[in-house]
């Protein structure tokens, strides 16, 4: 699958870049990188109608005080590794964790080391949501035994969970290459408790989990939350991310309607993560 890289520059950058992030996330863009003048956004080519929906959203507002320029580029699947390697720097999550690629030097690193080769999958830890979810895992205290990682991507959260003591982890993603990448990265990190499965929430057979991780977009989360409630053991923990600060109240209220109670909220830049329990 090829990916679309959308570059948007703003003069001035604020508040237009933040408005664009919200609109693009709702339109199927999966990952974002903030630049000095705007943002880079990535999506599967077949998942978005490049610019037309965008022009009907924040571009329909008064633009008298802003200049906006666009550039699009298709990144073929075979070039994805090269693209990531050019920009993939080690990720440090406070004193807890360093996420590296195989080509990085491993000396003088902080905390747990996790080695990830992303290939076509997102989830290197560079994005704020993955960073927050990683931090939250370290701050759980004792790691629960049975974990579900929805939208696993590279498998990085599943790998961290196993290294922290989880004994049985189901890592699920709708993309087959993400499942393959999770398996490869699990082997790379000498993990043996991770089972990777391709599909959506419906591939999970009747079972229960002590901890559920879901770093997806808001609309998918809302569709899944009733099932997460059924899959979670009594007093089990649910971590949600993949949305903005402005979405927290809506999601907390929605979860409350389904028997899930907020424990705390994490924030990084304009992004958020919520810890809940049943």
Task: Give me some keywords for this one.
globular; four-stranded antiparallel sheet; 278 residues; Rossmann fold; 28% helix; seven-stranded mixed sheet; alpha/beta
Summary, kept brief:
By secondary structure, the protein is α/β, with parallel strands linked by helices. It has helices at residues 16-26, 52-55, 80-87, 128-138, 156-163, 176-188, 218-231, 248-257, and strands at residues 3-11, 31-34, 38-44, 67-75, 91-93, 97-100, 112-115, 146-150, 168-173, 194-198, 209-215, 232-244, 261-268, 271-277.
3D architecture notes:
With 278 residues, this protein is of the alpha/beta class. It folds into two domains: 3-75, 2-Layer Sandwich (Alpha-Beta Plaits); 137-277, Rossmann fold. Helix content is 28%, strand content 33%. The protein has helices at 16-26, 52-55, 80-87, 128-138, 156-163, 176-188, 218-231, 248-257, and strands spanning 3-11, 31-34, 38-44, 67-75, 91-93, 97-100, 112-115, 146-150, 168-173, 194-198, 209-215, 232-244, 261-268, 271-277. The N and C termini lie far apart (38 Å).
């Amino acid at each position: 699958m090829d990916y679309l890289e959308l570059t948007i520059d703003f003069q001035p950058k604020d508040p237009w870049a933040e408005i664009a992030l919200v609109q693009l996330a709702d339109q199927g863009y999966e990952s974002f990188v903030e630049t000095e003048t705007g943002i880079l956004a990535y999506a599967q080519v077949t998942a978005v109608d490049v610019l037309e929906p965008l022009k009907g959203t924040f571009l329909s507002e008064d633009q008298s005080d802003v200049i906006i320029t666009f550039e699009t580029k298709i990144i073929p699947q075979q070039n994805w590794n090269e693209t990531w390697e050019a920009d993939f720097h080690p990720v440090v999550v406070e004193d807890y964790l360093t996420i590296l690629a195989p080509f990085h030097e491993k000396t003088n690193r902080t905390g747990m080391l996790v080695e990830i080769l992303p290939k076509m999958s997102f989830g290197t830890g560079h994005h704020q949501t993955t960073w927050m979810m990683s931090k939250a895992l370290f701050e759980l205290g004792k790691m629960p035994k049975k974990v579900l990682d929805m939208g696993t991507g590279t498998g990085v959260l599943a790998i961290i969970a196993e290294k922290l003591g989880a004994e049985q982890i189901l890592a699920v993603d709708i993309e087959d290459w993400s499942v393959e990448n999770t398996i490869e990265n699990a082997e790379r990190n000498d993990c043996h408790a991770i089972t990777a499965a391709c599909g959506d929430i419906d591939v999970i057979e009747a079972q229960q989990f002590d901890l559920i991780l879901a770093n997806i977009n808001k609309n998918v989360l809302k569709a899944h939350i009733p099932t997460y409630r059924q899959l979670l053991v009594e007093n089990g923990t649910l971590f949600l991310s993949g949305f903005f600060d402005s979405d927290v109240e809506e999601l907390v209220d929605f979860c409350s309607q389904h028997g899930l109670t907020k424990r705390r909220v994490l924030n990084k830049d304009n992004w958020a993560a919520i810890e809940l329990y049943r």
